[in-house]
Amino acid sequence: MKILITGGAGYIGSTLVPELLAKGHEVTVLDSFIFRQSSLLNCCYSDKFTIVRGDCREESVVKPLMKEAEVIIPLAAMVGMPMCAREPITARTVNQEAVEMICKLASPEQWILYPTTNSGYGVGQA
């Protein structure tokens, strides 16, 4: 399968991408690298791996990458309440609006896999 992962150089993507490549999938990662991570260096050997530095909120960047994908996995996110509270506009545009854009641009034949952590459900207060 041809898979596009936004935020693929992050915590989940750094584990998921090598596994997908090992299973023979073609993987494209779109990441802004705002944390200067190098977690995918071990994937660069693969001819089935493409990495694009860019912003998941920019339709002009995302749309052409989506055209080639059978599966889209939006992992790009501002994670954790402290970070989201410090950067509420960035959190909304990355965590929500970028995913909404992906859903709008996706064709009926494409799958969107949307994983979330327990942070997505709040802190368990009544």
Element layout with pairings:
Layout lengths: L1 E5 L6 H10 L3 E6 L17 E5 L5 H9 L3 E4 L6 H6 L1 H18 L5 E2 L14
Parallel strand pairs: 1-2, 1-4, 2-3, 4-5
Question: How would a textbook summarize the main sheet?
Answer: 5 strands, parallel
Q: What is the H/E order?
A: EHEEHEHHE
Report mean pLDDT, rounded to a whole number. 92
Q: State the end-to-end CA separation.
A: 42 Å
- The count of DSSP E runs of length 2 or more, i.e. the number of strands, is 5
Which band does the percent of strand residues land in? Answer: 15-25%
So what's the overall shape?
A: globular
Question: How would you describe what is shown here?
Answer:
The chain is an alpha/beta fold. It contains 4 helices and 5 strands, in the order βαββαβααβ. Strands 3-2-1-4-5 form a 5-stranded parallel β-sheet, with helices on both faces. Helix 1 links the parallel strand 1 (2-6) and strand 2. The longest helix has 18 residues, at 88-105. The N and C termini lie far apart (42 Å).
Question: What key phrases describe this protein's structure?
Answer:
single chain; 126 residues; alpha/beta; five-stranded parallel β-sheet; 4 helices; globular
